[in-house]
Amino acid sequence: MRLFFAMAYPAGLVDLIDDLYQQGVNEAVICPGSRNAPIMLALVRHGGFRCYSIADERSAGFFGLGLALKSKKPVILCCTSGSAGLNFAPAVVEAFFQEVPLIVLTADRPAEWIGQWDGQTIYQNQLYGKHVKHFESFEAFKPHQLVQQAIHFPQGPVHMNIPIAEPFYPAKGEELPVRTSLVASQPVDQVFTWDKSLLNDIKDQKIMITVGQRPYDKVENELFEQLALKGIPVIGDATANLPAACELHHDLLLANEALWPNYQADFHLHFGKSFVSKRIKQMMRMFKPTKSYLIHPNPIERPDPFQSLTDVIQTDTVSVLKELVSKDLQANPSFKTWNPSIQPAFFEKQAWNELHIYNAIIQQISQQEVDIHVGNSLAIRYINWTEAKLHGTEVFSNRGTSGIDGSLSTAVGASQSTDKLTVALLGDVSFQYDRNALWNYYLGSNLRIIVMNNAGGAIFQILDGAKDLAELSEFMVTKQHITAENTAKDAGLTYLKAQNFNELNSILPDFFAPGAIGKLLEIFTDSTENTAALQAYMALFKH
């Protein structure tokens, strides 16, 4: 067991922090508190970390998630004892299912004070249960374990609980102790091998490739594009970040359920993680492929969203795609059953509803050098339904758990690691739920926020079953009449608003133009008109 001296730094803490730095971790999100002051001081005074101070732990967790999504490196989250660590939980769970490396350091009371009605004390060991890849208590930690667990596939969050006794603060003139153990070794790269003979018999098969949420990857996209140009359906939502050649409008095409039998595949390969689209999952569960493989280096479990999994091919995406491209594959034209005139005809004459507005905004965004963070519920679905697409723009969305919390905080965090514009596209409920994302000092001039204000959670108005409930308005839509104006002004952002296309078209060039401070654009629409337009649009694809 580690000894705790009557000083501000528990023995071994400096070694731990330097271990993290030596292994490539250099960003930390720190939430203010007393019990975690020694961890904060060890991070800040180390000199090798870029440290952010975020008061709200829930927002801080997602801020760190955004940093890690953009940097592709582990990020430290640090908080005090008690409920503070619980407030990290939504971001930790999101990171677990998105496979994003976070290193969570929670300060705690010494063991003898747990369960003694001492202030700010809960049961913090194993706080996140199965939603972290690895947990260990500080008293028994093994050097290098945290980083290697976080970055080895499947990547994900890890948690260390650190008991800290008083005093929390160093005496005047007390220096940061020097490390006492050996310098950490670097993580070893993982090497994956797989049985290429699994693809020997696919030459004359009806092949389908599905791609779930994944980061943009230029090398992978070039290979996906080659397969698509060979006539192989490569199907993905906007969150798959695929090239334009793979655009098949599958969610709209599948609105006509009579066509589903035509799409049944002999051989199916899935890359990436989850789908937004419910229809592709329903279709494949009903018309199962003969063989279905998930391509993943080392999944946490054996996810089978299509209920047809033959096996997992445990390797990287590029090696499988290269093997596929090298083969003489039979084109599968079934997904080409598409009337290309429907969308241009519908969007030709603009009407002031969300579907047309999203289409206009996406057209503008696709011409910018930006990253976009899309909120959940209707926002992420609209960008799959519109004619305009985002193939040159990396799309992020918290689809690990698909919750509305933290979408804005994630965008703000990600904006720290790029000079490109970072656009958050959110509904009003998502924005209001995460207003504390703007309660910090890190709102850069590259931040752009678009709030679609339809006065409530309008997705429930289009859901079969929900839309006819007498309780819909009060308990599901949860109508609200708060605007984003005061929040934007409190945060020091430029506030813009639009209530028709004349206003929107005049505002958008200024909104995307460089400026000294970030900008927030609030767009007001009528929920009833939005629903009617969407229903009319979807009806066009059902025959």
UniProtKB/TrEMBL annotation:
<feature type="domain" description="Menaquinone biosynthesis protein MenD middle">
    <location>
        <begin position="196"/>
        <end position="369"/>
    </location>
</feature>
<keyword id="KW-0786">Thiamine pyrophosphate</keyword>
<protein>
    <recommendedName>
        <fullName>2-succinyl-5-enolpyruvyl-6-hydroxy-3-cyclohexene-1-carboxylate synthase</fullName>
        <ecNumber>2.2.1.9</ecNumber>
    </recommendedName>
</protein>
<dbReference type="InterPro" id="IPR004433">
    <property type="entry name" value="MenaQ_synth_MenD"/>
</dbReference>
<comment type="similarity">
    <text>Belongs to the TPP enzyme family. MenD subfamily.</text>
</comment>
<keyword id="KW-0464">Manganese</keyword>
<comment type="pathway">
    <text>Quinol/quinone metabolism; menaquinone biosynthesis.</text>
</comment>
<keyword id="KW-0479">Metal-binding</keyword>
<dbReference type="Pfam" id="PF02776">
    <property type="entry name" value="TPP_enzyme_N"/>
</dbReference>
<dbReference type="InterPro" id="IPR029061">
    <property type="entry name" value="THDP-binding"/>
</dbReference>
<comment type="function">
    <text>Catalyzes the thiamine diphosphate-dependent decarboxylation of 2-oxoglutarate and the subsequent addition of the resulting succinic semialdehyde-thiamine pyrophosphate anion to isochorismate to yield 2-succinyl-5-enolpyruvyl-6-hydroxy-3-cyclohexene-1-carboxylate (SEPHCHC).</text>
</comment>
<dbReference type="InterPro" id="IPR012001">
    <property type="entry name" value="Thiamin_PyroP_enz_TPP-bd_dom"/>
</dbReference>
<feature type="domain" description="Thiamine pyrophosphate enzyme N-terminal TPP-binding">
    <location>
        <begin position="16"/>
        <end position="122"/>
    </location>
</feature>
<dbReference type="InterPro" id="IPR032264">
    <property type="entry name" value="MenD_middle"/>
</dbReference>
<comment type="pathway">
    <text>Quinol/quinone metabolism; 1,4-dihydroxy-2-naphthoate biosynthesis; 1,4-dihydroxy-2-naphthoate from chorismate: step 2/7.</text>
</comment>
<keyword id="KW-0808">Transferase</keyword>
<keyword id="KW-0474">Menaquinone biosynthesis</keyword>
<comment type="subunit">
    <text>Homodimer.</text>
</comment>
<keyword id="KW-0460">Magnesium</keyword>
<dbReference type="GO" id="GO:0070204">
    <property type="term" value="F:2-succinyl-5-enolpyruvyl-6-hydroxy-3-cyclohexene-1-carboxylic-acid synthase activity"/>
</dbReference>
<dbReference type="Pfam" id="PF16582">
    <property type="entry name" value="TPP_enzyme_M_2"/>
</dbReference>
